[in-house]
Design a protein that fits this description.
This protein has helices at 2-28, 36-52, 66-74, 81-90, 109-117, 129-135, 145-160, 162-181, 191-208, 214-228, 241-266, 284-308, 317-347, 350-366, 374-379, 382-395, 426-430, 469-486, 530-541, and strands at 93-98, 101-106, 123-125, 188-190, 403-405, 409-411, 414-416, 421-424, 487-491, 497-498, 504-505, 510-516. It has 542 residues and is an alpha+beta fold. The strands form 4 sheets. The chain has a 5-stranded mixed sheet with strand order 1-2-8-5-3. The longest helix is centred in the middle third of the chain and has 31 residues, at 317-347. The protein binds protoporphyrin IX containing FE.
Length: 542
């Protein structure tokens, strides 16, 4: 009964809107000559629309159902109340009104895949103006069309390359070693804090080639102030969080520009005739600078003389700084969350922890003294990756993505009207009992059986799939490897998860270190790395 009332309210809303448009058309036509036929056509169209828009409710005027959505995902007890209630009343595809827009939420894996794969044709990302101000108009999330394709391609190619992953592995292990040095038996550490420290260092390395030091610390301080603005009221006045966030963003941009200037000062530039070597740094800044050089020189060639008197650039410097700034977020926050949640889940599931430890100790034995590379960590630790898959499924670090319909879109018998927002809600699919048995339980063994990967989208899909997924998996696998082979711990104070706006552990996951492994008998896989060798020797002397 309730659902019918809600459906009626949407239908009324559309009916009245279409009637008003019809009336306006009639009134504005010269001498009201518009044929009555066209009004009938409008009414027929309204009827057709009201029949095919997914059922649901719009909630209150202007704010719609945003408050219910937010309070549901702020709760650590029953975060999915909002979704569960509506799924029961309306099914897996329903209409609501979120953050100022009529929105279709989809908990249907097939529809979600369709939306992700139709990016750029039927849908495009749709972020509020305040977020555009924060990320910058050139950030990958804001880009469309061929420029998006180009930036995505350059970054994805870099992140897929074994050279980059192997180069990064040395640093990941180094940063983990340094962090772990301070964790001693009988001490309590805040795992989320430690994971964030490590992943920020990895991020600074992979994005701009920075080693830990004063600049990384300064960059991290500004990044934290910057990120606070993402969830603030967007009022750009001195004293507001939003204002301070924009100021920090500007300082991050200055630091990145400083690194660029330093690189360009040192660079030996290309000159094909003189056969100079191009030095492309193995990081995101390096490949974006190279891409910019290529695009701008092509632009100049094509532009001929006219180009010399204009300042047009195919790829301005802002395109580099906006992207670097925006990559800091997934690279620091999401990866650290993956590591922290994996530790929480295995700590609560002793059988999984035991198997994880066994696999990783065997791995140490098997590759004793061998030169390790990223493929070892990505391919030779199957159970570790089952743990990570399950953590991503259950933890839903990214709940879903928001898109806008570019045209009227028909899918599974429903209409998503042009201009409406659409929210493929991955979390709703990942926690669907019809797909995953005991969906709310941590069960890494399910990944040892045949699981339909088409339902599984923790890293999105289509043209905007996560370019950094291998980096995220590598970092998390190496972290788990070192943690379980060297430490025994127990969870400290009980911690809870909240989900809005981002997944967070309320207490930053305190863990008590019970035992630090005597590393004498443990052969670290990357012994040839001089820093690690020094640390290994140090441990061996303990
Ligand atoms: C556990 C960690 C991570 C998760 C869960 C995650 C999740 C996602 C998701 C769901 C998307 C799709 C966004 C959309 O469709 O609008 C995405 C895109 C992306 N992610 Fe990640 N990500 C993670 C780590 C990383 C890392 C480490 C990087 C690299 C620094 C990265 C870089 C990117 C990039 C470049 C895109 C493409 C955006 C676009 O083309 O519009 N991500 N990620």
């Amino acid at each position: 009964m309730n659902s019918h009332l809600m459906m009626a309210s949407i239908a009324d809303f559309i009916g009245i809107a279409v009637l008003l448009v019809g009336l306006f058309a009639l009134m504005s036509s010269h001498y009201m000559r518009a044929p009555l036929k066209s009004i009938a056509e409008y009414i027929r169209k309204a009827k057709r629309m009201q029949n095919s828009i997914p059922p649901g409710s719009f909630g209150l005027p202007l704010i719609g159902e945003s408050m219910q959505f937010i309070s549901s995902y702020r709760s650590s007890v029953c975060p999915d109340t909002f979704i569960a209630e509506r799924r029961l009343r309306f099914g897996r595809i329903f209409t609501t009104h979120l953050f100022g827009k009529p929105t279709v939420i989809s908990l249907d894996a097939e529809v979600n895949r369709f939306i992700l794969n139709s990016d750029g044709r039927l849908f495009m990302p749709d972020y509020p103006t305040s977020l555009k101000q924060l990320w910058g108009k050139w950030a990958i999330l804001m880009l469309e069309g061929s420029f998006h394709k180009r930036i995505h391609g350059v970054v994805a190619t870099l992140f897929k390359s074994d050279d980059l992953k192997d180069h990064l592995l040395r640093h990941i292990e180094d940063f983990i070693q340094q962090a772990m040095e301070s964790w001693n038996t009988n001490s309590t550490i805040y795992l989320e804090e430690e994971a964030k420290k490590i992943s920020f260092q990895v991020t600074a390395k992979v994005l701009v080639g920075l080693d830990p030091g004063a600049t990384t610390v300064a960059l991290r301080t500004e990044f934290h102030k910057f990120i606070a603005g993402v969830v603030s009221v967007p009022i750009n006045l001195p004293g507001t969080t939003f204002y301070s966030s924009l100021q920090s963003r500007a300082r991050m941009v200055q630091m990145i520009k400083g690194i660029i200037e330093e690189r360009e000062g040192n660079a030996r530039h290309t000159d094909r005739e003189q056969k100079h070597v191009v030095k492309v740094h193995l990081d995101v800044l390096g490949v974006l600078l190279e891409e910019r050089r290529l695009m701008n020189s092509k632009e100049r060639e094509e532009g001929g003389e006219r180009e010399e008197v204009t300042t047009t650039e195919a790829m301005p410097l802002d395109a580099i700084t906006d992207n670097i700034v925006s990559f800091f977020f997934p690279a620091e926050d999401s990866v650290a969350m993956l590591m922290s949640l994996a530790v929480k889940y295995v700590s609560e599931c002793p059988r999984a922890l035991l198997q994880l430890r066994e696999e990783n100790l065997n791995f140490v034995d098997k590759y004793k003294g061998e030169k390790m590379n990223s493929r070892h960590y990505l391919m030779q630790l199957p159970f570790t990756h089952c743990v990570l898959n399950e953590t991503l499924r259950l933890g839903n670090i990214v709940k879903g993505v928001i898109r806008k319909a570019l045209v009227d879109v028909h899918v599974k018998g429903f209409l998503i009207p042009k201009g409406w927002a659409v929210f493929p809600f991955f979390r709703g699919v990942h926690l669907d009992e019809a797909i995953y048995e005991d969906a709310d339980q941590f069960n890494p063994w399910r990944w040892q059986e045949k699981v339909a990967l088409s339902h599984y989208t923790p890293f999105g899909g289509g043209p905007r799939y996560c370019a950094g997924l291998d980096i995220a998996r590598l970092e998390a696998a190496v972290f788990l490897h070192h943690l379980v082979t060297r430490y025994e711990w127990e969870l400290g104070e009980r911690d809870t998860l909240t989900h809005f706006p981002f997944v967070k552990l309320a207490k930053r996951l305190p863990i008590n270190i019970i035992h630090k492994q005597n590393c004498k008998n443990q052969s670290f896989p990357t012994l040839y790395n001089p820093t690690l060798q020094a640390i290994h020797v140090m441990y061996a002397r303990v």
